[in-house]
Amino acid sequence: MSYRLLTPQVANMSSFIDSVAFGGRKIASLSSTFPLPVEETVPLASLLGSRLHRSGQELLQFLTPGVSNSSSLISQSAVIRGIPSSLTHNPQRNVQTQNPSQHENPFEVCSATNEMVQTFLQNLHPQTSPLCWNVNQACMVKPPFPNIFASRVTSDGFVVEGYARPEGRRVNQTSVLSRVESNSGIAGMLLSLIQWAKKVNINKHHLFLESGTEAETFKEMLEDLTCLSERYENP
Known about the structure:
The protein is of the alpha+beta class and 235 residues long. Helices cover 29% and strands 14% of the residues. It has six helices and seven strands. The model is unreliable at 95-102 (pLDDT under 50).
């Protein structure tokens, strides 16, 4: 979404890739929340703030095999979409503290949705400098999109505990928070691939040879992957 926007926030593909793939790193993983657990009366800042105080329980879930919440992030870029303007009001901005330079709530100085997400991710992983984009339009999930949502999700994509969506009524749209990140878990994913590949004897597979892949070339590829994995182990 970041390079498809028709707004001043648009980023070109190379800039987006550079935000997560630098220092010789060529692979990134994906995490997402779909839909966000937003309610019609709870501001986004309040939702994100409550998640910051839940030790070890991140809002985003990793989708890439071999990468987990215990992975250390090196870089991250995120896109949030489908948050109504009524939920982007930050009530903390109306609270005047005795010392304006001290903000107990990190969202107090945020005025835009992407700023709130950036603050959230920055506080979760202080060693990174996340880039964030906001898309006002919700993600449309009308047919033929599969009806995969729990009954507590309303037709407009809000998550309401205790609510049961009537049978036969579908979710039409929903919010999404997705993040592309470079992290230490990618090293484990690569090492797993390398260990499997080392068991393959390409001399026994004629398709490898017919494609021009030689045993020595295959070995060099594995060595390159090993070097690449080290870039995630030792950022």
